[in-house]
Amino acid sequence: MALCCTFLPVQLSAQSNTRDSVSQGQKEIETRADSMIVYQLRGKGVHFSHNNSVILLASGQEKFDDLFKAIDQAKSSIHLEYFNFRNDSINEELVRHLAAKAKEGVEVRAVFDGFGNASNNRPMKKRHLKAIREKGIEIHEFKPMEFPWLHDIFNRDHRKIVVIDGKVAYTGGMNVADYYINGTEVVGSWHDMHCRIEGDEVNTLQNIFLRMWFLASGQEIHGAKYYRGVSNADYIKGLKPDTCRSAGKKMVGIINREPHTTKDIIRYFYLNAINDAKDSIKVINPYFTLTRTLKKAFRKAVKRGVKVEILLSVKSDIPLTPDCGFYNAHQLMKDGCTIWMYEPGFHHTKIIMVDGQFCTVGSANLNSRSLRWDREENAVIIDACTTHELNELFDAQKKDSFKLTEEKWRKWRTPWQRFRGWFAHLLSPFL
Prior knowledge:
The chain is 39% helix and 21% strand. It is of the alpha/beta class. The chain has two domains: 34-52 and 244-430, Endonuclease Chain A (Endonuclease, Chain A); 53-226, Endonuclease Chain A (Endonuclease, Chain A, 2-Layer Sandwich). The strands form two sheets. A 15-stranded mixed β-sheet has the order 4-3-2-5-6-8-1-9-16-15-14-10-11-12-17, sandwiched between helices. It has a two-stranded parallel ribbon with strand order 7-13. The chain is globular, with a radius of gyration of 22 Å. The model is unreliable at 1-29 (pLDDT under 50).
């Protein structure tokens, strides 16, 4: 893509009119939001490659169907990193596919977060892990929960990454749980987003996994076979295709939050993405507790004429945090943002689309855990087609949402609920 050359000097001709024309064109290109975000993230050490395909997987069924097909065709290695593997039917199905590949000699490694496991309502116990290991699958727990537990709630591994043969990778917001397909009694249907990446950014995701594997297992894994080289995964057939004209040529960068090293990268991306916007911002995020700087950025965007649309869920899987999100949504509504409240189920999706030119899919929520504490990872996709696909998803979800107005706010939220939201926003640095 031409974006990679946006910031290189332009060779001008001697003619004044040509020089003026080129200078004006260069200025227009350099002020585009997608060019700006690439420049800013490169300044923070983020690498962008230009030979990627990105395939959006917009439901749990679509994600697991695609993932299982890819696993079944693996030849060398399967690496999985999840916040939690819920001990349910989809996890059993995953283990069955992994065990079959392990029996064939494929290296299978999995890591999960101790807090993520302990905090879900169907955690894996020691007997379950023993049974999985007996099937030839290496699985390790990152930071097991230990008394007095307080230190264990911070700096968790909230990422969701799968890398197959070093050639195909999956990332997004979904853990391993059957409620992504079946929903739950509490919230009904459960909506989330994942994507499959093929291209050089698979190597970046593999690096992230192998570092986490070392932290969890103590094993150092090296070798060219774990990385994408000149060959693609052409032998993996039947997966959902990338139908964009830009397939195989998409610019993608991975922003990876590590405590102490890249601790501000997720905040930096979101803040600059909002500040760079010239035309439109669309956001779906489940835990909308926000920081002061992000709220200020949304307000400034509206003042300079950017159309800001935010979609949140009426229902949630946890208490108090959504109250804070509702409070922030109401405040931003009064400042000119358009707020959509999704009703049929719970939207656990974490995406932002800016100016129809770039977007992100990943694990990071807009709460303090993701922005200040946990290990997170998002794919930043500089591609109009992929962004358009997400914009279409956003617009489709609006049909099942109500638009927040002051009158609707008063009818929807009782005085006690409005007070609870105000109180929750005081606790937002810890939610």
